[in-house]
Design goal:
The complex is a heterodimer of chains A (519) and B (314). Chain A is 30% helix and 22% strand. Chain A is built from 18 helices and 18 strands. A 5-stranded mixed β-sheet of chain A has the order 8-9-10-1-11, with helices on one face. Chain A has a 5-stranded mixed β-sheet with strand order 14-13-15-12-16. Chain B is mainly alpha-helical and 314 residues long. Chains A and B meet through helix 1, helix 4, helix 7 and helix 13 of A and helix 2, helix 3, helix 5, helix 7 and helix 8 of B.
Chain lengths: 519, 314
């Protein structure tokens, strides 16, 4: 007991924080030392394992590991050229063979990438820096796919038959400006140091540390205490209410970035009343978007447009923003046959049964669900809230066991499948966050056409047609376009956010530097 | 000791039923464990899902999975965790020492402090000090542990900067580890001690009205000998059950404190295994908890026999 008391009160001698060591706090939990299979680590290795491409702030593709690519006219043959100045951290150059190996190896072993192996017919290495991938069908968006596809060193991985259970340090050999130097899951820390074989622009940072916290409250305290310099959550924001408090300390800059992620209501289009367009329009009219923006995002979010696709996506079409009009909502409900015949404030359907709907959501959207229930209650639609944890939500939405659901899109999710959020709705697809509710041939036709074109003009026309489809048919109602708030310590400057990974992109760690004159 | 074949059979039957429930409960929970392996914003390839199902043995009929599960129990090999990408046994064994380091001092210190102070408080008459101390314990016990942990973290770590905010360690030296353990141990000990104090106080107040206390006093037994030699032993019987339960739930009892202090202990492991429907991991953890509960109950029975001579006569 005495020893514990002594240890508790004896503060270990701390070295002053080096000026160019950046400490990032996160609530993502790295569960295993495995860069291919651990989801959180898969984001953090953006610094050590650059993708072939990245997105610029306008959502356009720009080269990263590859500076040039060509695609055949039938979109089945993709040729990539690897930049000359990339070297693995053990001194070997990154080659075209690493790219072809990665596509086959990751495609074979990582379940979420298995489609890649299935559709790959063959690979070719034209010269040490030029790789060719040949697919069995037209693939128009491989450049987008390669903004998140890991490229790994062949000489490290080729003799590892079961990568899922590989945990040796050799897997950390990367070709980015930083490589993982240590990972201590008991301490909740990942340490990255400079890659001595990096030939690109020299980063001003010497070291990067990622500190994992199990809850946001303590992460906020750590920021306030100066234990960490910034925080990171994939596709998510630092709590809006805590950001102001940090700003008031004068030690933090609060950066606001509009994301292409949305929070939205999805309708179950397989059953009434979600399969009635009039009902969906009524719901869209019953909601108070301004209040949602104020209450849920503390004024930081943006009210979305009617076309579901958020501002910031390529070929965004400015359509009329939906507005609250309870009178119109009631008229639309009446027209659908939902009337309050017994005067109890709840509408009944044609059979005389009360219109009682199940609104399914996860704890993440609890408050939003309560608000939506309140708005719908105001127009005579009784809502039963079912707030469940993620696994149950996935099971229930896959069984279409709901009338309405509140969920979110991520920046990557908006780009998956044919892009523009189609991956969430196409009934031929499935996945953890995917609703797969739309089987309308018109919608599926646009998806297929989008998948088959690369010509910017045709793509623009299809993207606009899709947004008009969303606005006309309302398979979902966007509630708010999220803004990501990132507090950064004023000791550092030069932050760069990308549309997919926020601050956790390679470019950012080349531009972030200690601010002059600030200790 | 009075442990006969019937009792052993009872324990074995209980183990059989609990192990069977351990197999069934995760599978009765809604949700497909494989979906979570893919990621939130991924469109799944149905063929890939089928292949993965075969790889994980989830394509087999339930009865075959059940037989395989028993085979795994016998060989103490629970396979690989879906999400931690390592052997379940290795994963559990790597977490147990850290959680033991957190919970053993808590149960022992909380038990000793709560029982001794509870006995003294129950024995002494009403005084301002006694009432004040009882109120303090009531307040601590009524406070949710995660709130107590957050409050302590704010005062001692953020304001006074005496302790780290997270994790089991930084450098890994013994003083460093103890430095990290101190605050969570303090919070949990305060919580356990206050609960034990209140139980023990109530129990002693009941005991001191009994005839054997008067009889003992009439025989000239008084002071600490009477309180700790006679009253304490009888009043401690309900506490034995409570502390046995604490040992039984040793690994799952600190979840909220592990979340607040960002400690990767058994509590977090259980929580994440449940959320991600990691069947092999859940089965392994449930086995450990089951064994702990059964062993703790056996230990409680042994303690009862030692403390209560009436049971020995029966």
């Amino acid at each position: 007991m005495l020893v514990a008391l002594w240890a508790g009160c004896a503060r270990p001698t701390e070295n002053p924080l080096p000026k160019n060591r950046l400490k990032i706090g996160t609530v993502h939990r790295v569960k295993s030392r495995n860069i291919l299979f651990d989801k959180a680590l898969g984001v953090f290795i953006n610094l050590s394992h650059p993708h072939l491409f990245a997105l610029d702030p306008d959502g356009e593709i720009r080269g990263l590991l590859s500076d040039d690519y060509r695609v055949s006219e039938d979109f089945t043959r993709w040729t990539f050229r690897v930049r000359d100045h990339y070297f693995w951290s053990d001194g070997l150059p990154v080659t075209a063979s690493d790219v072809t190996f990665s596509v086959k190896y990751v495609g074979r072993h990582v379940p979420s990438r298995r489609w890649m192996e299935r559709s790959l017919v063959r690979t070719e290495v034209l010269d040490p820096k030029t790789a060719v991938l040949v697919f069995d069908q037209p693939r128009t968006n491989m450049d987008i796919e390669f903004t998140s596809f890991p490229i790994i060193p062949r000489h490290v991985w080729e003799n590892i038959p079961r990568p899922r259970f590989y945990s040796e340090n050799r897997q950390f050999i990367g070709c980015g400006p930083f490589i993982i130097a240590g990972m201590d899951l008991n301490a909740g820390v990942i340490r990255l140091r400079k890659n001595s074989y990096w030939k690109g622009p020299r980063p001003a940072l010497e070291e990067v540390e990622i500190h994992m916290y199990h809850n946001l409250d303590v992460l906020s305290l750590a920021l306030e205490r100066g234990d960490i310099d910034t925080c990171y959550k994939y596709a998510d924001t630092y709590p809006y209410t805590s950001a102001q408090r940090l700003a008031e300390t004068g030690r933090f800059t609060i950066k606001k970035t509009r994301t292409t992620g949305l929070t939205f209501i999805g309708f179950n289009l397989k059953r009434a009343p979600g399969n009635q367009l009039g009902f969906r329009r009524a719901v869209a009219r019953a909601l108070d978007y301004r209040e949602i923006q104020k209450l849920i995002t503390s004024g930081y979010g943006d009210p979305p447009g009617a076309g579901f696709v958020p501002r910031g996506m390529p070929y965004f079409l400015e359509l009329e923003k939906p507005t609250r009009d309870p009178g119109e909502a009631e008229r639309l409900l009446e027209a659908c046959g939902y009337r309050d015949s017994d005067g109890d404030g709840i509408r009944e359907n044609a059979d005389g049964k009360p219109l009682k709907l199940v609104l399914l959501s996860t704890t993440r959207h609890h408050r939003m669900s309560e608000l939506v229930a309140e708005y719908l209650g105001g127009v005579g639609v009784e809502v039963e809230l079912r707030i469940v944890e993620s696994a149950t939500w996935v099971a229930m939405k896959d069984e279409y066991d709901y009338h309405l659901t509140i969920t979110r899109t991520t920046p990557w999710g908006m780009r998956m499948h044919a892009g523009y959020g189609t991956g969430y709705f196409d009934a031929r697809r499935t996945g953890e966050g995917v609703l797969h509710t739309v089987s309308d041939p018109a919608f599926l036709g646009i998806c297929d056409s989008l998948l088959a074109v690369r010509d910017p003009k045709k793509k623009k026309s299809l993207a606009r047609a899709l947004q008009q489809y969303y606005a006309r048919n309302l398979p979902a109602v966007a509630l708010v376009q999220r803004v990501i708030v990132t507090p950064t310590n004023v000791r550092f400057t030069g932050w760069y956010h990308d549309p997919l990974f926020g601050i956790f992109n390679l470019q950012n760690f080349l531009t972030v530097r200690p601010a002059h004159g600030i200790q | 000791m009075g442990f006969n074949k019937t009792r052993l059979l009872r324990v074995l039957l209980a183990l059989f039923f609990i192990f069977t429930l351990n197999f069934l409960i995760p599978r009765m929970m809604p949700g497909d464990p494989l979906v979570f392996l893919m990621g939130e914003d991924v469109v799944l390839d149905p063929g890939a899902m089928d292949e993965l199902r075969v790889e994980m043995g989830l394509d087999q009929p339930l009865w075959r999975q059940y037989i395989r599960y028993w085979g795994r129990i016998v060989t103490l090999d629970f396979g690989y965790s879906y999400h931690y990408n390592q052997k379940v046994s290795a994963l559990i064994l790597s977490r147990i020492p850290w959680t033991l380091g957190l919970m053993l001092p808590v149960i022992l210190l909380g038990g000793i402090l709560g029982m001794v102070t509870g006995t003294l408080s129950g024995w002494k008459g009403d005084s301002r000090l006694n009432r004040g101390f009882t109120t303090l314990n009531l307040v601590i016990y009524s406070t949710p542990p995660y709130f107590l942990a957050l409050a302590c973290l704010y005062v001692f770590s953020v304001r006074l900067e005496l302790f780290p905010l997270k994790g089991f360690m930084d450098s890994g030296t013994l003083p460093d580890i103890l430095h990290h353990y101190f605050l969570p141990v303090l919070v949990l000990t305060a919580f356990f001690a206050s609960r034990n104090f209140l139980l023990m106080r109530g129990s002693v107040r009941q005991e001191k009205k009994k005839w054997y206390v008067l009889r003992a006093r009439s025989m000239g037994i008084h002071g600490p000998r009477l309180v700790f030699g006679h009253v304490f032993v009888n009043a401690a019987l309900p506490m034995v059950t409570m502390i046995a339960l604490d040992f039984g739930f040793l690994f799952s009892g600190a979840l909220l404190v592990e979340i607040v202090f960002s400690m990767n202990g058994m509590g977090i492991l259980i929580y994440e295994a449940v959320l991600s429907r990691d069947y092999p991991l859940l089965q392994g953890i449930f086995l450990v908890i089951t064994l702990m509960v059964v062993l703790a109950n056996l230990a409680a029975e042994i303690c009862y026999h030692r403390l209560d001579p009436r049971l020995r006569i029966q």
